[in-house]
Amino acid sequence: MHAVRVTGHPGGSADAPDSGDDALRRLGWDDRLAALATGAARDTTRPGRVARVDRGLSTVITAVDTERAALSVDLRDAGPIERPAVGDWVLVDDQEGEVIVVAVLPRTSAFVRGAMREDETTGAQVVAANVDTVFIVQSLTAGPRLRRLERELVLAWESGAAPVVVLSKADLLDEAQLADVRDSVETVALGVPVHFVSNVTGEGADELREYASGNRTVALIGASGVGKSTLVNRLVGADVQETAEVREKDQRGRHTTVARELVLLPGGGVLVDTPGLRALALWESDDGLSRAFPDVEALLGDCRFTDCAHETEPGCAVLAAVERGEITAERLESYRGLVRELERQEEASDPRARAERNRQERNFHRMIKATMRDNPKR
Ligand SMILES: Nc1nc2c(ncn2[C@@H]2O[C@H](COP(=O)(O)OP(=O)(O)OP(=O)(O)O)[C@@H](O)[C@H]2O)c(=O)[nH]1
Ligand SMILES: [Mg+2]
Ligand SMILES: [Zn+2]
After folding, report:
1. Is there an atom of ligand 1 within 6 Å of 108 CB?
2. CA 69 – ligand 3 centroid, Å
3. Listed residue (160, 164, 91, 90) closest to 131, CA to CA
4. Taking the mean position of all CA atoms in its chain, how far away is CA 48?
5. Separation between Cα atoms, residue 75 and residue 220, nearest integer Å
6. Which atom of ligand 1 is nearest to the CA of 253?
7. Residue 69: HSE in the Cβ half-sphere, 13 Å Cα cutoff
8. Which of 69, 110, 132, 202 lies at a CB distance of 3.0 to 4.6 Å from 216, suitable for a disulfide?
9. What is the pTM of this model?
């Protein structure tokens, strides 16, 4: 159905193999990754970056080509977090006439959201891996949606990447309205850069492009219709992603982008465009919540009771801050809701998630060893 479109393949022609390493570097390949990949002794094993995943087949950009690769048996059996996701660095190899992903290199970051499985249990979904910066995109015509922003910030912090708030369609508001929005967003985006951008006038694009300089990776997340793909096109300088108008009556998008996809920037660096997500469930959180709510977390030690639920307890420092108007009641309510959601998640899935993470590391080393054993260097 949808053609695999990896724009501006960085590799030179097949008869210029020297450019291969360069081409990978423009996608973010570095010495750390090269060191991780040296275990593979087979001549045909080659590194690449996953640009897209369709029903188990990964589109992998290698030094001189774009290849479609199936999963090794081990990866097929692996959990959803271990399997290759868009942005992953992988090793592929030729096996019995097929290109196979034989290993996923350890990630530096992963944006993971909770996702409903077909059997209605919750699982995790890796939206993008090895991301340096997450653009949390919201449209100024439909927002700002502060409660959603809080949730997006928790997930972004948790990913290990740095969040940046991008408010799109700035051309549709006047100066006074923009100033009001900035004030309210800054009560939530604490210690996080906030950018206004217009994909019509081009305002803000240069600043945003900077985040991908030095061959870094930026993922765009946000609801359908906020202008993620339009922004990708603007940053690339060409219409590489499909876009569509929002519905007039409620400004909602039409879920135009259907797959997560890596898009290469002409000057190096990559963007990950993603389909708009209606609901954004949390997965697990170590410090994502405290980084998204530094104002609330800073007060927790000051409550009279150590098990204070910040609801009705006397001597509650958080409620006192709400009284003084330093934290809004909505924000506290939102914080409590996210805490409860995470507690439920942890009860339901934490052991499995932990086991999966550990297995990812182990599998990688096992596969490298197996490759070396089966295919001694000629
Ligand atoms: N006025 C204005 N319209 C914009 C801007 N950015 C995007 N749009 C319009 O908003 C609509 C939706 O844009 P898309 O880029 O398709 O939105 P998306 O976030 O990729 O949506 P999904 O792929 O469905 O998740 C299109 O009609 C765009 O032209 C902007 O800065 N200003
Ligand atoms: Mg889109
Ligand atoms: Zn309290």
Report:
1. no
2. 52
3. 160
4. 19
5. 27
6. 24
7. 37
8. 132
9. 0.86
